[in-house]
Fold this protein.
Amino acid sequence: MIVVLVVASLLFPASASAQSGGTVAPTARSFTAAPAIVTEGGTVTFAAKATPKALTRVDVIAPGKPAVRVKTGRVGASGTIKASWTAALAPGKYTARLVVTVGKSKQYFRQALTVGAKAAPKPVAPPATLTSTGSKIFPVQGAFNFGGELSRFGAGRTGHIHQGQDVAAAEGTPVVTPIAGTVHHVAYQANGAGYYVVIAGVDGRHYVFMHLQANSTVVAKGAPVLAGQRIANVGNTGGSDGPHLHFEIWINGWWATKASAPIDPLPELQAWAAQA
């Protein structure tokens, strides 16, 4: 994903809280973020000039989204501060807000950030045939386990039930599609599925792979895939509490109609694992 940071160099007037006890108000003179264009997972350097010993941080904010807080520490005796941050944001418009604090007094600098959508991967070359269902292949190509009761289909979750089976594995373990088909959907959900892929199988069912590792997806929407073809890696993105693959099987489409529904994938996963 290409993350484009458009730095508007917007310097806002200081907004200081009431001072007490003779506290010296912080003085910030500049705030920059560089480079302006980075690849997702690349490094952005925040730099500022401000009152020595002032405490600083950068909040990356957007309406309706939780703030990403970057601790930049205290300003050095030279009056400068510099800190690096790994850019991993969904596409959209953001504001990078520098907060400079001395005692109870604060000053803010703001810069506009725009995160661009990633370039589509090169389409996978069409295979010779996608018509045979054959024996399906276990999706996690490495050491794994099925976890406990909370990993099961139907386990309770806040506001919903678990619609798939979690397969715990080390981050970076290859994930393959169990069946030939077509890539139906590729997306990112920050507070839920993380990076995920949906495959429309040639058997008429949809196969869903969630919490994939950032920058590991190698298929694009609409691309044909063969059984056993790598689509991404096991990750820990979105609302995940440890590296694992969240795997779902849907009948009658994936969220297509009222008849669309997930089924318990564990029996099939166990069967595929046994034949590996």
